């Protein structure tokens, strides 16, 4: 280990570990069936296993020098593209989409790791071309790097994950000093093309956007989940109904309660206070991450840190907004709390690199 590295950011680390613990607690609550002879759901045991693996990966990465990992950024990205192609060619459908590779003893969701690999490859690319900051070639090649992963995730279809790549890319370009005119121009073109994109959306995606405007337009169909989510969160009040006492969850009115809508379980059982605690933990990570970014001179580290902080912030905001009806349902999990091994591992990988970057002195 190179001399001069600082200590691990214990506040960020503590927040991440606390979130992981809460994830296990709420997956347990969301999967518990009262009166069942099964004490612990297999999903809880899998979540514990994945959290354990993810924490080990976090500590391993936090003790690495992140700059050396970028030597393999293009390889990692290429492998991830291959995995995304494998999903489209060989994966079976779940809920009308191809997102998981079934390896027998476990399932992997390559799109979760694609978010990480894109941050790596952008850091390597922009860091190597720091003398060309603000050039159109930097902007164009950055778009071309992200494009293949974006399209492969979009056709799974996984619109939510694909759209998450957009703020990550543009936040990185902004923090790196790229020309804002190119960024604004891209948004303008994208906005003008929205009517065209609408025709390429799947029927269920169009329906989700429709019920976002008016959930009661299809209260027993596409609008059912968001209606039940609002009921669950609203019924929690200030302090909630108590752990394992959520009626919407345990009476199975709320679908996807251990995945995308686990925040609804939190709101119902722990109320406004519990929800605020969870949001505050994520806020601690984001604020500490912004502090890391502000103290960096190294382009590689600044791009990586910006990517991970933006990814975490937008994923949390999107998921919570989705559960309370402020955004359409797009299938984005709550990082490390929603059930899922790929989700947990990708999140902890990001935290691990943020901790590694925070240990570096200004260069």
Written overview of the protein:
The protein is an all-alpha fold. It has one domain. Helix content is 66%, strand content 1%. It has a two-stranded antiparallel sheet. Strand 1 and strand 2 form a beta hairpin. The protein starts with 9 loop residues before the first helix and ends in a 5-residue tail after the last helix. The mean pLDDT is 87.
Features:
363 residues; mainly alpha; two-stranded antiparallel sheet; 2 strands; 66% helix
Counting helices, strands and paired strands, the structural category is mainly alpha
Overall number of strands? 2
Task: Write down the secondary-structure element order.
Answer: HHHHEEHHHHHHHHHHH
Span between termini: 17 Å
Quick structural summary:
66% of the residues lie in helices and 1% in strands.
Task: Summarize the SSE layout with pairings.
Elements: H1 10-31, H2 42-62, H3 66-69, H4 73-90, E1 101-102, E2 107-108, H5 110-128, H6 136-154, H7 159-175, H8 180-192, H9 194-198, H10 203-213, H11 224-235, H12 247-250, H13 262-294, H14 299-323, H15 341-358
Antiparallel strand pairs: 1-2
Helix pairs in contact: 1-2, 1-13, 1-15, 2-15, 4-5, 4-6, 5-6, 5-7, 5-14, 5-15, 6-7, 7-14, 11-13, 13-14, 14-15
């Amino acid at each position: 280990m190179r001399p001069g590295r600082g200590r691990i950011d214990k506040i960020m680390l503590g927040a991440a570990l606390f979130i992981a613990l809460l994830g296990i607690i709420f997956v347990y609550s969301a999967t518990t069936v009262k009166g069942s002879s099964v004490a612990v759901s297999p999903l809880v045991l899998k979540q514990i296993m994945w959290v354990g693996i993810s924490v080990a990966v976090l500590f391993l990465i936090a003790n690495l020098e992140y700059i050396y990992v970028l030597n393999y950024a293009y390889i990692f990205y290429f492998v991830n593209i291959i995995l995304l192609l494998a999903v489209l060619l060989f994966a079976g459908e779940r809920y009308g989409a191809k997102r998981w590779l079934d390896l027998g003893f476990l399932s992997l969701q390559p799109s979760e790791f694609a978010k990480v690999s894109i941050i790596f490859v952008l850091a390597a690319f922009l860091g190597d071309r720091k003398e060309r900051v603000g050039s159109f070639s930097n902007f164009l090649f950055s778009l071309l790097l992200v494009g293949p992963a974006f399209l492969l995730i979009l056709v799974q279809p996984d619109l939510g994950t694909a759209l998450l790549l957009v703020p990550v890319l543009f936040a990185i370009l902004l923090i790196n000093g790229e020309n804002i005119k190119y960024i604004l121009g891209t948004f303008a073109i994208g906005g003008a093309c929205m009517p065209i994109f609408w025709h390429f959306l799947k029927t269920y995606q169009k329906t989700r956007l429709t019920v976002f405007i008016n959930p009661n337009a299809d209260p027993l169909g596409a609008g059912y989940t968001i209606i039940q989510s609002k009921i669950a969160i609203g019924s929690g009040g200030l302090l909630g109904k108590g752990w394992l006492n959520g009626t919407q969850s345990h009476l199975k009115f709320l679908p996807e309660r251990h995945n995308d809508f686990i925040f609804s379980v939190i709101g119902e059982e722990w109320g406004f206070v519990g929800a605020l605690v969870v949001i505050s933990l994520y806020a601690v990570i984001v604020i500490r991450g912004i502090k890391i970014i502000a103290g960096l001179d190294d382009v590689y580290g600044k791009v990586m840190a910006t990517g991970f902080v933006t990814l975490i912030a937008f994923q949390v905001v999107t998921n919570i907004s989705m559960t309370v009806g402020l955004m359409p349902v797009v299938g984005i999990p709550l990082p490390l709390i929603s059930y899922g091994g790929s989700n947990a591992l990708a999140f902890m990988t990001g935290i691990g690199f943020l901790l590694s970057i925070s240990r570096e002195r200004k260069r």
